[in-house]
Specification:
This protein has one helix and six strands; from the N terminus they run ββββββα. Strand 1 and strand 2 form a beta hairpin. The protein is α+β, with helices and mostly antiparallel strands. The protein has one domain. A two-stranded antiparallel ribbon has the order 1-2. Zinc ion binds next to helix 1.
């Protein structure tokens, strides 16, 4: 029986991820502490749409200028 997953961001039900990064199929995110150690309880399963959205968010960061940041 196929394992069914639920996206922790948008709630959609899905079976498999297909989005890849460096030849690995992605499945979600983990937050890290300042020592680059993954925090297990922060793991989030993400559907492909949310993984693409996350990737877009990361890419767009270089263009973002936070209005609250004053020099
Ligand atoms: Zn999602």
């Amino acid at each position: 029986m196929a394992r069914v997953k639920k996206c922790d961001r948008c709630g959609v039900i899905y079976q498999n991820n297909q989005v890849t990064k460096n030849c690995e199929v992605l499945g979600g995110i983990n937050l890290c502490n300042r020592h680059d150690e993954s925090l297990e309880e922060t793991h989030k399963d993400l559907c492909d749409d949310c993984l693409r959205s996350l990737d877009k968010w990361l890419q767009e960061g270089s263009k973002v200028h936070h209005a609250s940041e004053k020099v």
